[in-house]
TrEMBL record:
Organism expressing this protein natively: Sphaerodactylus townsendi
Annotated gene: EFHC1
The name this protein goes by in its record: EF-hand domain-containing protein 1
Amino acid sequence: MGSQPVHGLPFLPGSSCRDPTKTAFHRSQTLNYKNGFAIKHLPTVGIGRERLHVNQLSQAELDELSNKRPTLTYGQPKQAPPSDFIPAHVAFDKKVLKFNGYFQEDVPVSTEEHFRVRQVDLYYYLEDDSMSVMEPMVENSGIPQGKFIKRQRLPKNDRGDHFHWKDLNRGINITIYGKTFRIVDCDAFTQTFLESQGIELNPPEKMIFDPYTELRKMPLRMYVTPSDFDQLKQFLTFDKQVLRFYAIWDDTENMFGECRRFIIHYYLADDTVEVRECHERNNGRDPFPVLIRRQRLPKATVEKKETFPTCVLEISDQEVLEWFTAKDFAVGKSTTLLGRSFFLYDCDEFTRQFYRGKFGIDDFQPVDVKKPPLEEVKQVIPPYNGYGFVEDSLQNCFSLIPKAPQKNVIKMLQNDRKVLRFAVSMESPNPEDRKRRFILSYCLATDMISIYEPPMRNSGIIAGKYLGKTRVPKPGSSTDSPVYYEPADLTIGATVEVFSHRFVITDADLYVLNYMESNPESFPAAVVQSMRDHFAPRQAAAEAIKRLDQSKPDPQELDTVVAQTQEHLQRHNYLFDSSMQATFLQQDKDGSGLLDKVEFLALCDHFKVPVDDPLFQKVEFGQLKLFTKSFHYQ
């Protein structure tokens, strides 16, 4: 059907057609605004921008309607004469639009300012569309100010156009003769005029001030009425009269702070204060006596700005609201002087009299500022860990580099190479351990005990050193105060517990008895007597054997010696069996009852008979018949 729509067809299904080239389907606006008022607007195009031919009047009809007046009863009215023409210089006479703005210019030759902000007023004269720029006067600016651009029509661009009041608004930049001006606000008349002409004004902006000019503004002068106080009279009255306070400065809250003592002098002649430090011996500080030199100290000052150069300028009298006086010092109170808090704990007698007569104060009780002694921390000894001796391990708790514990050198020299030997047997629930025999040695020089196990043939136990030299504590003693075994504790039949192993003393060396008899003050009398009773049968047998060597033995005496020898062997828990008797009889081939020395020692060694006992050593081996009979138990 082409791109043109077909008109005149009935609006029925199948008869309507649609233009595929049409893309716009919106309706035209029928309401418009002029000078801020809503007016009705008849659209000339319909939906899709199609031209409306209905109710459209030609230009001639519109002109006729505009000039036609309604017909009145008495005829056509007279047409009003046109209004008089008023020129623009008359209509807009003395009507000026005023805008506030500023521009920024660089200052390349100054080290104190890099740029300068200059405020201006832009004037637009409606009568001839001319403009002028005025700069208000600023006091002590040093810049020629006033008329910046004289009144004229200002060019807008290079095409010959000029600025119009429609080009001006708030919050915009305009460039005039190479300088860019920022318009920030306008007056009320300008705002009303522009809004009446349908111009929507931007929101106003804040005026920017020159930072260097603000910095140079001098503070207002403050005039202080001079006081009528007679300083000369004060000087003559209180000359050489000084109040003395004793104070401390506690700075322990800060790092490396200390508690230091000071003396504060208050001079009544001119109300000055001096702080002197009390140095102590070997305090490690330089010997400077004065902490704060004599001067008037401010108590309250005006609030200073952050830019106030405190490090190079002192506080003047105009910045001090109140100075320290004598009433600001009191015993038992703290006073802050130049940022340091001093606690006044005492004063001298002259100061007490002055405050008593001047202010009526009688409370001058001194404050004890001595710090209590540090609480002594009790040294807790850790438990014994089982390595080494208790005395050696204890030295690790006393110093970083442990020292060897002191030894009794005199005791070591007197008892050098003196050893007490005892024969012991193990007390154990195991039958095999009960048969084991040991030799316990007690070193008198160091009070150490060692245990040695002699070799036993076919016992299945490796003989040798059972316990090295060490100090053995008694059962029940603690590691804090251990109690060790002493020679007085080692008696025949006594039980010695060595590190959870129990040993029973069965015999002792003859040197033990001799040592006890030579040192009776070191042993109880009962211990010495028990040791004598133990060695009495052995000594009696030795004396009997000695008598037998000197004379022919009597059978009765021979039986007595045999009985003593058997008793001595039984006391040492030595048990005989039938094989021992059979072996001795078998070795005596001629039946004489006598054995050779070598044969006798071999048999004794075979049956573990203690041939090294002094009782055997004192007997001549030619009389071995006596000992042979001693082993014949009926």
